[in-house]
Amino acid sequence: EMGTESRTSSSSSATTKLLLYGALLSFSSIFQMGYSNAYPNTSIETFKVYLNDSFDGQLDPPSFSWIWSAVLNIWFIGFAVGSLLSVPIADRIGRKSCLMIGNAGNVISATLSCLAIPLNLWWLYMASRLLFAVSAAISMNSLILLLQESSPSSLRGTMSFYAEMAFVVTNAVGVVCGMRIVLGENLLLLTGLAIIPAVFSLLIVWPFHESPKFLLLKRKDAEAAKKSLRFYQNADAEECDRFLSEAEEETSKDGKMDNEAPASVFDFLRVPHLKKGLLLGILSLQLTTSIWPIIYFSTEFLVRANIDAMTAEGVSTLMLLFSTLSTVIGMVVVERFSRRKIFLSFATINVSALILFVVSASLQHWCDSCKYGCIAAICLHGISYSLAVGPIAWFITAELVPLSHRATAQSVALCINQSLGLVFSFITLPLYDLIESFGLSGSLIFIPLFIIPGVICIVILAWQLPETRGVKIGDIVKALQEGPSHRVKPRRAVGRNDFELDAI
Ligand SMILES: *[C@@H]1O[C@H](CO)[C@@H](O)[C@H](O)[C@H]1NC(C)=O
């Protein structure tokens, strides 16, 4: 409400400019993160040969699974480290400079991974992925800060969706390039391609201004902040002054809050409703862990279900294209329906898709056409994830916890989620092999790793998760304290930005 009224028609060109800047920064800075996580999926056969060569042809299939799993999943460790580093760096040197450091890291890591191919050094490729994950996290976190702090409140929601959007789109690019009929046969080109957008992302950030909030609040430089506001929002003198006074008010409020009750991790152990909010957030995020093995290995899973390699690559690609489309639809749809209902129903579809995969893969020994159930399952899984499960899980923790503890809750929940993701995703492929060595379908491993935990999460969430869409944080806390008998009626017709204001 606040944002729309202050934007006049003359500022519509400013809005267009800001949306364009946001898209330019997001797609170039996030490119490698999406691309390099997705191409190993479809190009797995070529990487098998590469890895075998770098072990002088001594690699047996089970060792391949362990090593390839380690190479891919080192991502989680790097991303966690990068996330921890990014906050102090961005606070000290600024959001834009932090983004440049992340993007420079992207250039170096893309170059290293490209070098690792002709040098035939598998550990160099693994090291490049570690560096890539650290810099991806730094880029991602500083990008979100920069975009959010430079936009008027009416555009803040859209801006934070850009990062996720860029991730899904570049994921699709990666999976297409990884197909053997595209670049999948040529690892040098496939890995080297990431260098171009990385260099571009480094150059493009250069002329951008530092975030106005950072300049004002951390640097205490009101002149530079005004210049930056003019750059991002075409703000006139009056708008600049309003922005400055609002921002200063915000800090004085924050400052007071910090003095009175500093947010501590231990509050989550002491205060029941904080503990419950955090736990429900972690359970919601747990439902997203099965996407990682699918992003990394869907082609391999399909091949092992006896689907020919070409079709398998095609299905993995199609699944990611569907996912991209679903994310766009999800952005529009998510704010229109009950958060609780939409999350729980799509999570149920998501887990059912895994069950369908296991059943189809197990039955294909007896009925050959059952293997096509696997294709349907992979697509259903991708779509239900991108449409609702993924996006909602990413922000539900923030909605369940009051502002004073929101940032801490979010980072604790993500940290726990990434650690669990690492473990689950790392052991999936090797255990797949192990089960297959007993003559069973390897997909049975989904049952203990993803299906049973998924069902447990859904049951607990169905019982305890309060509705959060358009509900004030005070009422959410009340719902968490009083348990499932207390149901809050959501108010009607609220947009994302109204919600942000209400939630505070
Ligand atoms: C690696 O190459 C050797 C010899 O060509 C072969 O026996 C082995 O199966 C290969 N390993 C993998 C994982 O493909």
List keywords for this structure.
504 residues; mainly alpha; 23 helices; globular; binds 2-acetamido-2-deoxy-beta-D-glucopyranose; MFS_trans_sf; transmembrane helix; hexose transmembrane transporter activity
Structure overview:
This is Major facilitator superfamily (MFS) profile domain-containing protein. Residues 18-469 form the Major facilitator superfamily (MFS) profile domain. One of its GO terms (molecular function) is hexose transmembrane transporter activity. By secondary structure, the chain is an all-alpha fold. The protein is built from 23 helices and no strands. Helix 4 packs parallel to helix 6 (122-150) and helix 7 packs antiparallel against helix 17. Mean pLDDT is 85; it is low at 1-10, 254-260 and 492-504. Bound molecules: 2-acetamido-2-deoxy-beta-D-glucopyranose (NAG). 2-acetamido-2-deoxy-beta-D-glucopyranose (NAG) is lined by residues 48, 52, 57, 59, 61, 64. The site of 2-acetamido-2-deoxy-beta-D-glucopyranose has 6 residues, from helix 3 and helix 4.
State the order of secondary-structure elements, H for helix, E for strand. Answer: HHHHHHHHHHHHHHHHHHHHHHH
Structural class category? mainly alpha
Q: Report the average pLDDT across residues.
A: 85
| Poorly predicted segments | 1-10, 254-260, 492-504
Q: N-to-C terminal Cα separation, in Å? A: 15 Å
Number of helices: 23
Distinct small molecules bound, one entry per kind: 2-acetamido-2-deoxy-beta-D-glucopyranose
Note the main sheet.
none
> Radius of gyration in whole Å, from Cα?
23 Å
Tell me the number of strands: 0
Q: How large is the share of residues in beta strands?
A: under 5%
The residue fraction in helices comes out at over 70%
Specify the overall morphology. Answer: globular
